[in-house]
Amino acid sequence: MTYVLEMKEMTKKYGEFLANDKISIHLKKGEVLAIVGENGAGKTTLMRMLYGLEQPTSGEIILNGRNVKFSGPLDAIENGIGMVHQHFMLFSDFTVTENIVIGHEPKRNGFFNRKAAAEKVKELSDQYKINVNPLKKAGDCSIGEQQRIEILKVLYQGADIIILDEPTAVLTPLEVEELLKTIEFLALQGKSIILITHKLPEVMKVADQITVLRNGRVTGNVLKQHTDVEQLATLMVGRELQKLTQRVQLDGEPLLVVDNLTIGGKEEKPILDDLSLTVHRGEIVGIAGVSGNGQSELILAITGLRKIDNGSIRLGETILDGTSVANRRSAGLAHIPEDRYLWGAAKEATVEETGLMGYYRKKTFNQSSFIRLNGFRELLKGWIDRFEIKTPSLDEKSGNLSGGNLQKLIVARELGFETDFLIAAEPTRGVDIGAMEYIHEAIIEKRNNGDGVLLVSSELTEILTLSDRIAVMYEGKIVDILNRKEATEEKLSVLMAGGN
Amino acid sequence: MELLDLSFFTSAIRMISPILLAALGGALCARVGIFNVGLEGLILAGAFSAIVGNYYSGSVLVAVLTGALGSVLVSLLFGLAAIRLKANPIVAGIAINFLVLGLTTFGLRAIFDVKGAFYDKNMEGLPKLDIPVIEGIPVVGKLLSGHSPLVYIAFLAAILLYIFFYRTVTGFRVLAVGKNEAAARSLGLKVTLLQYGAIVACGILCGLAGAQLSLGQVTMFTEGMTAGRGFIALVAMMLGQSHPIGIVGSSLLFGLMDALSIRLQGFSMPTQFTAMLPYIITIFAMFFLKDRGADSQLSGQQSSR
Fold first, then answer.
1. Which domain holds residue A97?
2. Is B299 on the interface with A (CB under 8 A)?
């Protein structure tokens, strides 16, 4: 059997650090190869070498039987390798068409022929059944549409091998379904696909062949029919995943009480529409919903980061609405924000400073307005050990940490406040399976201690795993609240889409 | 003398051209992601080298060309700092402004051995172009005909720049670089080359603006004769959203104010007061700008799972 692509014993060293240690993969025409592994397992490095962004220390790349070396992405593109980056490379002010043809624009008499370009895009979109509106501005497109633009761009450039780097990370469940269909269709058309991910259920749906990486080495190469999610997870993490801690039955009193909360809505549709919600002590309430249905605003309203137009928010005996963020936090609220760069950390601050945020108010670390770092460093090191946060030093800039590691630091910090109530918004966004386990464990432990948790997540599995009750948000309202036992993914999906 | 007669508008059109030329140059830089605060210095360099070229060659054409060349050299220095050495463009631009101010003052003494201003009655200024046909039309003829060639070139440059940005492939790529440099690089566009191209073109345009200042009306050079026009051009560029046609509109506004301030002096208003006019308008314009202007970089990356 001939392979369209083989990478043999690829090795990449950064100084003493072995990012890739003799990794080999192979790919046939029309095949979907999934490369799975945790953060830092070496997936990205391997793909960067294939795409010409990094030079291998040793190893060879064989493309259609020919030995090749790429000095840059242009080389890779010309040889029929295309990459859909995790962070989209789009020009939001340009139209869909312009974004797709840039670099290879159709010309007429030296001028940019936009009409011909739009026609080509339309053709391509029909051919591969990837639906886009050629004349829409890319910035007005949904995340799913933006990803379709990226895929079409790669196809327009003539790629036969398409690398998709964590493509489902930012998509809603419905968009994920659609993407998986597109991947299958592309493979059917003879395109070879390399799918980089750590989401195993998706892998099991579309991949033909799966290569598992851990710590820069291949720990397994299996065909889909010979494996299952559990085996892949074990190969990825290097140990078997534990079952989550048992929940203790608790009937706590109401802790967070939100009444008739409204934001906006004088002339237009309200963002939050007369919303009421209660979280009891010893309870995790999950909020499910397609993003943009008011979840973010609800969190911002509770934490005091956004003004409300009506309603009241109470935490235990304390009235929160109208008070400052600092007051709310000292009343017993901790907050793992959904966007770690916007609300959770300062990119330029060091790891230590990010960890210290909020703690300088605590008596232990604050001696007549001077910060005491000694005791704090112990605490910080404890977090780093417990959550396996990978950082070169405490003085590293937060922005240089990988997203998953920064997330773990923020989670550790917010849990460390030991408050009665925690808002956990997308707590495991960007973290790998092993760390996800720790975070889930910690949240359940918090619940078992009699604290209340409000969980907001775009991952239904996460909501289903953790929540005692699940509130579904749609257009600024809570349309239904389901008990842990009665909730299923299907029921929630229907409710999330506005159905009954 | 009336306040707003025909000659007022004629002089307004003349006043526009340095601002318009420089603002178009600034727009080119903004469109490749470099905010060029050095326009003032570039114009001044153009004005001075045009006079030098004029004095030694006696040819107006050579004078205009040396004006452009002088400005391009300074512009390349700015490009070297901002692109190659990755200096903060704002700081580099301010440095350019002061560098040129000092350099031209020094040049006045070193080359012409004068202080403050240089004037030589043998030097020839820019010719006035009478446009056939239009010249004959009443009112319009007076308004549009009989300006220096650089005035026409300024408006022509705006139209050409519009075509370049929105009709040509290279222009499209220039816009792309300014919108998202990382994405442009990932596509293999020659980002650095495009940036230097914009810097050089900006130098040429500012050089022409300078030549219009020193050769257009009275043929002379005075220390700091740009008198903030580079900064007004910067505002015109921002008010016009770095769009060539928008810039024509905003430059028109500032040209009118410039002309008005001179005209008001004829009505025994104190010079110091009337000279404020363009700047008052600038402050008002700023209210409407808010955070619009040339958008670039900041791609709003969403964090991901």
1. 5-237
2. yes
pLDDT band at B159 (very low <50, low <70, confident <90, very high): very high
Say if A73 falls within a structural domain: yes
| Separation of CA B259 from chain center | 17
- Region A302-310: what's the mean pLDDT? 92
**Average pLDDT over every residue of B278-285:** 78
Read off the tokens for A378. 């112990």
Q: For residue A242, tell me if it sits in a domain.
A: no
The candidate with the shortest Cα–Cα distance to B32, out of B85, B79, B94, B93, is B79
Asked if residue A352 and residue A210 are part of one domain, the reply reads no
Amino acid at the residue A479: V
CB contact under 8 A, B302 and A339: yes
Is residue A244 a part of any domain in this protein?
Answer: no
Phi-psi region of A8 (alpha: psi -120 to 50; beta: other; left: phi over 0): beta
- Measured from the Cβ of residue A230, the count of other Cβ atoms closer than 10 Å reads 11
What is residue B2's predicted lDDT score, i.e. its pLDDT?
66
Q: What is the ipTM of this complex?
A: 0.79
Pick from A432, A409, A412, A411: nearest CA to A238: A432
Chain centroid to Cα A382, Å, comes to 26
Task: Give chain B's length.
Answer: 305
* Structure tokens given for B72: 């391009």
Q: Taking an 8 Å Cβ-Cβ cutoff, which residues of chain A contact chain B?
A: 72-74, 77, 85-87, 89-94, 98, 102-103, 105, 107, 110-112, 143, 166, 169-170, 339-341, 403, 426, 428-430, 458-459
Same domain, A145 and A261: no
Most A CBs within 10 Å: which of B179, B194, B305, as the mutation test of the A interface?
B305
Contact criterion met (CB < 8 Å) for A111 and B305: no
Per-residue pLDDT at B45:
96
CB contact under 8 A, A112 and B167: yes
pLDDT at B298 over 50: no
Q: Which uninterrupted H or E stretch holds B74?
A: helix B60-79
Angle between helices A403-416 and A373-386 (to 10 degrees): 120
If asked whether residues A231 and A259 sit together in one domain, one would say no
Is pLDDT at B3 greater than 70 in this prediction?
Answer: no
Domain count, chain A: 2
The predicted-structure confidence for B208-266, as pLDDT tens digits, reads as follows 999 999 998 788 999 989 888 999 999 899 888 899 999 999 999 888 888 888 888 87
Mean pLDDT of A465-477: 93
Q: Using CA coordinates, name the residue in chain B closest to A427.
A: B305
The answer to whether the CB of B108 falls within 8 A of the CB of B100 is: no
**CATH code where residue A312 lies:** 3.40.50.300
Strand runs labelled E in chain B: 117-119, 220-222
pLDDT computed for residue A239 by the predictor: 73
Domain boundary among A202, A237, A272: A237
Q: How far from the centroid of its chain's Cα atoms is residue A259's Cα?
A: 31
